[in-house]
Design goal:
single chain; seven-stranded parallel beta sheet; alpha/beta; Rossmann fold; isomerase
């Protein structure tokens, strides 16, 4: 499973708007379909490696892409067949069908298969699950290699419905931009490997995938304070805060202070007993506070939150600190990153609806904070609507303590200054890159045992 790094993501409605804008700029929708079909044909030709291809065409423009691909594959000498679910229903699809000079079979239960199936039945904009008889028909092709055009048929492209396609794809070729379904559960695994075919659409970059991870190199004149000083609050479960402190140091902070009375996990971490927040609140060198890892709800947590919020110092809030701070964030402009997992998110933002992207965006706007909605399909949302989707992550991160590590990494990135959204995206990228580097058997301590 993979998706391109730093790729644009568009909903079905945004895709239609982008196509219309492209047409107004002088590139007709027919030209876009020709480009899309050419991209499908090129990739199908490579996947098939000389074997016969069966293209399944629907009545809409997705089917039109399939007819264009068939014509181009035939011109290359490929043994290509077309099977239609229904006659073309749009002008573009009709024109594409008319340009195809081969036979069109009817998509029925007894249609002969082929080594490669190109699924050009529905694409984006589907508003209901496929009918049972069509689903059963498509399952007959299971075991063949499947190339889906834009999204596998039966998937809600906006990622706001949990339908799964009857025929999962080995490869999905996204046209112009990725769609939310490519990066959100439960549909992302059914899309297989996602590739992006740029067809000349100027896609809005407010939603995009995670950039390729990079190592931030300190400036030539850097010193430990300019690289960022992070203060980690420690509650009764001090191991969680210790993981956050080690992560902050490994992720690039120059100086890390950990509240508590247990030995530091790394010798360079400064451990201060007592109320380190009270001592450090007036220290202008502190670039970020991290509050929440291993810290249950209660008066002690509330006191630290009140002091941190009053100081206007940038904050990373995790676990119980999120709902405790939320009433104080909605009207402020403090630079804050929230890091809830699914359960914490549901408790903090019970009224959020829609896809995971929709919910993360609504939560960020409500809290006036950057939200990292954690999970296998992590979504980072900014209050201004920007989104970064981090699919796929690493399944080995599904273990205790890895969220504490992410909170510490956020602290390091935030303490450097700059945009909190960029800091959150960088922390998520660091977190996933560390996990992939370590691989099987990962435990949270491994993430901070060695640098990236």
């Amino acid at each position: 499973m993979s998706v391109p790094a730093d790729a644009p993501i568009l909903t079905a409605a945004a895709m239609r708007e982008a196509e219309a804008a492209t047409a107004r700029a002088g590139v007709s929708l027919g030209d876009l379909m020709e480009r899309a079909g050419a991209a499908v044909a090129d990739f199908a030709w490579r996947m098939a490696a000389g074997a016969p291809i069966l293209i399944l065409c629907g009545p809409g423009n997705n089917g039109g892409d399939g007819y264009v691909a068939a014509r181009r594959l035939k011109a290359r000498g490929v043994a290509v067949r077309v099977a239609a679910l229904a006659p073309p229903a749009t002008d573009l699809a009709k024109a594409a069908r008319d340009a195809w000079d081969g036979p069109v079979e009817s998509l029925t239960d007894n249609i002969a298969s082929a080594p490669l199936i190109v699924d050009a039945l529905f694409g984006v904009g589907l508003t209901r699950p496929l009918a049972d008889d069509l689903s059963a028909m498509l399952r007959r092709f299971s075991g063949r290699r499947i190339l889906a055009v834009d999204v596998p048929s039966g998937v809600a492209s906006d990622g706001d419905a949990d339908w799964l396609p009857p025929l999962a794809a080995d490869v999905t070729l996204a046209l112009g931009a990725l769609k939310p379904a490519h990066v959100l559960l439960p549909t992302a695994p059914a899309c297989g490997r996602c590739l992006l075919a740029p067809i000349g659409i100027a896609a809005d970059r407010h939603m995009q995938t995670l950039p390729a991870p990079t190592r931030a190199v300190p400036a030539p004149d850097a010193h430990k304070y300019s690289r960022g000083m992070v203060l980690i609050a420690s509650g009764p479960m001090q191991g969680a805060a210790a993981l956050s402190a080690a992560a902050a140091l490994r992720a690039g902070a120059g100086y890390v202070v950990l509240e508590g009375d247990r030995p530091a996990p790394l010798s360079a971490i400064i451990v201060e007993e007592g109320d380190a927040f009270a001592k450090r609140l007036g220290d202008p060198r502190v670039g970020a506070f991290v509050i929440g890892p291993g810290f249950p709800a209660g008066d002690a947590l509330d006191a630290r939150l009140a002091a941190a919020l009053a100081s206007r110092t940038p904050l990373v809030l995790d676990a119980a600190a999120i709902p405790a701070a939320l009433p104080h964030l909605e009207g402020g402009d403090t630079r804050v990153i929230l890091t809830p997992h699914a359960g914490e998110f549901a408790r903090a933002f019970p009224e959020a609806t829609g896809s995971k992207i929709d919910r993360a965006r609504a939560a960020a706007a409500q809290a006036r904070s950057v939200v990292i909605y954690k999970g296998a399909d992590t979504v980072v949302a900014a209050p201004d609507g920007r989104i970064c989707a981090a699919w796929p992550g690493s399944p080995w991160l599904a273990t205790a303590g890895t969220g504490d590590v992410l909170a510490g990494a956020c602290g390091a990135m935030l303490a450097r200054g700059g945009d909190p959204f960029d800091a959150a995206v960088a922390a998520v990228g660091w977190h996933i890159a560390q996990a992939r580097r370590i691989g099987a058997g990962l435990v949270a301590d491994d993430l901070v045992a060695a640098p990236f």
